[in-house]
Amino acid sequence: MSHLLILFSLSLCIPSITAQLTPSPTYTPPTASAGLASSTATPNTQWSNILGNSLYFYDAQRSGRLNEGAYGNRVEWRNDSALQDGEDYGLDLTGGFYDAGDYIKATFPLTFTLFALAWGALTHGEGYDQAQQTAYLDGTLRWGYDWLIKAHPSDDVLFVQVGSGDVDNAYWGGDENIPTPRPAYPVNSSSPGTDAWSSAAAAFALGSMLYTPSISYNLTSSSSPPTSPSLENSTYSSLLLSHARSLYDVANSTSPKSTYYESLGEEVSAYASSNWQDDYVLSALSLAIATNQSDYYLDAYNGYVSYALSGLKEVWNWDSAIPAIYVMFSEVAITRPGLAPEVGLDTNLTGWRNETEAYFDSILDGNFKRSYLTKGGLLYFDGDSDEASLNPAMAIAMLMFRYAPIASSQEKTDQYNAFAHGQLEYMLGNNPMNAVYLVGSHPNSPQNPHSAPASGGTDILHIRNSPPTEAHVLYGAMVGGPLDNDRFWDWRDDWVQTEIALDYNAMIPTLAAMQLVNQTSDPYYVQVQAGTYSIPSGQPCDAALPCGGGLSKGAKAGIAIGVIFGVLFILAGIFYWKRKQIARWWRKGYRR
Ligand SMILES: *[C@@H]1O[C@H](CO)[C@@H](O)[C@H](O)[C@H]1NC(C)=O
Ligand SMILES: *[C@@H]1O[C@H](CO)[C@@H](O)[C@H](O)[C@H]1NC(C)=O
Ligand SMILES: *[C@@H]1O[C@H](CO)[C@@H](O)[C@H](O)[C@H]1NC(C)=O
Ligand SMILES: *[C@@H]1O[C@H](CO)[C@@H](O)[C@H](O)[C@H]1NC(C)=O
Ligand SMILES: *[C@@H]1O[C@H](CO)[C@@H](O)[C@H](O)[C@H]1NC(C)=O
Ligand SMILES: *[C@@H]1O[C@H](CO)[C@@H](O)[C@H](O)[C@H]1NC(C)=O
Ligand SMILES: *[C@@H]1O[C@H](CO)[C@@H](O)[C@H](O)[C@H]1NC(C)=O
Ligand SMILES: *[C@@H]1O[C@H](CO)[C@@H](O)[C@H](O)[C@H]1NC(C)=O
Ligand SMILES: *[C@@H]1O[C@H](CO)[C@@H](O)[C@H](O)[C@H]1NC(C)=O
Fold first, then answer.
1. What are the pLDDT digits (tens) for 407-436?
2. Which residue from 36, 10, 138, 25 is spatially nearest to 434, judged by alpha carbons?
3. Mean pLDDT, residues 325-332 taken together
4. Are residues 540 and 569 in the same domain?
5. Is residue 530 part of a domain?
6. Which reaction is catalysed here (predicted)?
7. Whose CA is nearest to atom 8 of ligand 9?
8. Is the dihedral of CA 329, 330, 332, 338 positive or negative?
9. DSSP designation for 188
10. 76 in catalytic set
11. What integer pLDDT is reported at residue 218 of this predicted model?
């Protein structure tokens, strides 16, 4: 029991963290029909709305006491919830965000999300300022980081999940009756989670930079200040950095290293990451940038070499950091050129550009075995895109946009920009369905996101039609997306296509901020005619709604083999029955 007391007393030492920026003016999402109006304003109203809505989505995912933030609760249909979280460990683990359309709180996809938001804001903070969304960015980040601080009550302890997946999957309803108990799951030195520790360290490190606007991170000579001066808060910045360092130290010194899933098992299988090496290297690199300390850079470089991370063709998502690592190494070579020369390991822009461009070019050239473009033009990764197709495509678009200005030639710059634009436009309506995959942005946006609180439904057996109309508009949420045939069924029970999640949305604010900084004209959806989306006929046939009565792959293979043998048997019969005719026909053909 003594460790519980230690944890509890540590939690009392955490400073009360409430000060935040106050939004001025306040922002409320406009109704979807506003998406039909072309904007000639600077900044572009439509891109400002995409940015504003995509952050509003994170407000709708909040758990805990909703008035604790600086600007209170913007989402009038949400209530305080899960106020006992952490009690099983004598801790306050209230707050944070629900991960998706349900009610578990999962640390791993949260840290991926915070990392992506912070990294984007570090270089494109000006977009948030233009759209007057910096206060909401601050609100979203703090709601995440403040919870992550609670979830990291001592050096080696990090809570990786709150709420049981099994219990949660059996519940479909509002936020007032969320089933309890909601157990908390920690990793610690006896049950290590190298991936979870590292990913949290990476998110904390970039967060600490964001709250230190005087820190330099200039990718190009014309860079604007990296982030909004209004975010400056050295107290908060140091607090985030101290958590980054301590998590990294534990990740680096604990052996054997292990994923949190290997340590904790099925209870945390919702986000079972497949390895820790990529997360470890990303965290070392993030700390190298945040601290300008060469020992972190050395760890990153040595890890990259010894774990053989070169030339890998992985997606960027909560489970894989690979392409983000390539881009970040290139950025370090530009922004921290003096790092670690004393060991002959000077940052090497030529080498890192080669690594990054080999990766991007394999996507552009179609040499990336697992990826291709759908007929409608969406970048699709077999496997990774099957249960949420838009997320990996938006992640690559974000990486290409940020890398394009520092590419090795103008030609590559143009290619990466063009490809990224194509992906973004697909998501925003330039697709065979005329669907705009952001909820509430346009009349053709999805009407039925798979979200228990937004749906207003309580009948888990009739999620699709009960109630017939979704109770609340979940503004700013990007849904899972279409299948590889570009078709999209807007069905609430089809979680493959219509679920929403923290990590799905992680790139959208940055993509919008990039367009604002660039003063781009309207997003594609402005030219999409209302009413041109309709639900396709037939069945989707995906993991949520499998066809053929929900047969497993094994059963399907069995049937296929049976059919092949059956056909062979029939052919053999025909052959025997007609053997004389066939022999005559054969001889004739042979003679000719
Ligand atoms: C800076 O952040 C700390 C920690 O969240 C907070 O207590 C403090 O009030 C903030 N200062 C300002 C000026 O916002
Ligand atoms: C929030 O509480 C109100 C009042 O009880 C209820 O009508 C509403 O459905 C709740 N919201 C959710 C998301 O459950
Ligand atoms: C360490 O983690 C394991 C697995 O989650 C847990 O059972 C145990 O209680 C934890 N130990 C401490 C001291 O928190
Ligand atoms: C980075 O850009 C800022 C703003 O343009 C400038 O003040 C600063 O000197 C630059 N730093 C470096 C290292 O180039
Ligand atoms: C990480 O661990 C290695 C091996 O123990 C050590 O050499 C290195 O200094 C550590 N890195 C940091 C930043 O402490
Ligand atoms: C460029 O990268 C590729 C793939 O990572 C690698 O095989 C090749 O050796 C690299 N070439 C140079 C000149 O660095
Ligand atoms: C990082 O450290 C190097 C070596 O001490 C120094 O030359 C460089 O100016 C530092 N860069 C930043 C951004 O602090
Ligand atoms: C620079 O990168 C290239 C290509 O990856 C590599 O061949 C070379 O050894 C690197 N140089 C240093 C000093 O790391
Ligand atoms: C910014 O503008 C340039 C020039 O028009 C374009 O090529 C590039 O794709 C734009 N960048 C982004 C992030 O949209």
1. 999 999 999 999 999 999 999 999 999 999
2. 36
3. 97
4. no
5. yes
6. Endohydrolysis of (1->4)-beta-D-glucosidic linkages in cellulose, lichenin and cereal beta-D-glucans
7. 417
8. positive
9. B
10. no
11. 85
The best mutation among 65, 77, 455, 473 to test binding of ligand 2, ranked by most ligand atoms within 8 Å of the C-beta, falls on 77
What type of residue is 128? Answer: Y
- Residues 145, 183, single domain; the answer is yes
**Based on the domain organization, do 59 and 96 belong to the same domain?**
yes
The total of structural domains in the chain comes to: 2
Q: How many CB atoms lie within 10 A of CB 278?
A: 27
> Are residues 479 and 577 located together in one domain of the fold?
no
pLDDT band at 592; cut points 50, 70, 90: very low
For 275, the enclosing helix (H) or strand (E) is none
Place of tokens 């009948």: 459
**Contact in structure between 541 and 51 (CB atoms under 8 Å):** no
What is the token pair recorded at 190?
A: 């006896």
What is the distance of C-alpha 322 from the center of its chain? 14
pLDDT in tens, 231-285: 999 999 999 999 999 999 999 999 999 999 999 999 999 999 999 999 999 999 9
Residues 467-518 have pLDDT tens digits of 999 999 999 999 999 999 999 999 999 999 999 999 999 999 999 999 999 9
Q: Does the beta carbon of 176 sit less than 6 angstroms from any atom of ligand 2? A: yes
* Ligand 8 atom with minimal separation from the 346 CA: 13
Please name the amino acid found at residue 11.
S
- 272 and 392 inside one domain: yes
Question: Distance from the CA of 333 to the center of ligand 9, in angstroms?
Answer: 23
Ligand 1 center–CA 225 separation, angstroms = 21
pLDDT at 587 over 50: no
Range(s) of the domain holding residue 21:
3-549
Nearest in space to 102 (alpha carbons), one of 63, 144, 72, 52: 63
Q: How far apart are CA 195 and CA 193, in angstroms?
A: 5
Q: What is the mean pLDDT of the chain?
A: 91
pTM, whole model, 2 decimals?
Answer: 0.90
